[in-house]
Design brief:
This protein is of the alpha/beta class. It is 48% helix and 11% strand.
Length: 188
């Protein structure tokens, strides 16, 4: 069954104060606006830490920052590793574990996550997604995402494309759009 925004509102109407809002995952290809959206949500909740949604009080959410940058710095990966079969798999395995650990630390809390465990599978798909899909960590992350609100930020505004120590340089927008389709396919 597909979930819609109205399902969210209906499911929380009249619930008691202890009912936790669903976690939120911001996913999609690079340069699609995920971190920008996270920053807007951070400001939104900082202005008034206690919001009400259909008679449900929502305190300020915990934030899981994008983990890949931290992993790359700490473990010595670089952007070229993303397309290397062995290093790319190892990088995505480390990203999946880092995401898992971040979520484990926030178990029971409401959070917004800038990316998800699904991101590691999408980026590893070319060479090792099956290995990652069979890990206990991915199974737990997937279960959490099934109970969450997943926001898919799609590729679309070519002017947003940029490269840095984490983002790959694309030779054209077709590669970016293919990555967008990989995210879409993994969600179905």
């Amino acid at each position: 069954m597909e979930s819609h925004a109205t399902d969210f509102n209906t499911s929380y109407t009249g619930k008691n104060e202890s009912q936790k809002l669903p976690n939120i995952y911001l996913i999609g290809p690079q340069c699609a606006g995920k971190t920008t959206l996270l920053e807007a949500l951070r400001v939104y909740y900082a202005i008034d830490a206690n919001r009400e949604f259909e008679n449900h009080r929502a305190e300020r959410p915990a934030i899981i920052e994008e983990v890949v940058r931290r992993v790359m710095r700490r473990k010595g990966f670089n952007v070229q590793d993303l397309k290397n079969v062995d290093r790319g798999f190892e990088l995505q395995r480390c990203v999946l574990l880092e995401q898992y650990n971040a979520e484990e630390m926030l178990q029971g809390e409401w959070y917004i996550s800038d990316r998800s465990g699904l991101d590691a599978l999408v980026y590893a798909k070319a060479f090792a997604a099956k290995k990652l899909e069979n890990t206990e960590e991915w199974n737990r992350l997937r279960t959490r995402m099934q109970d969450a609100l997943v926001v898919f930020c799609e590729a679309g505004i070519a002017d947003w494309l940029s490269e840095d120590e984490v983002r790959m340089a694309y030779s054209n927008t077709a590669e970016w759009e293919r990555l967008n389709e990989e995210f879409h396919a993994m969600l179905i």
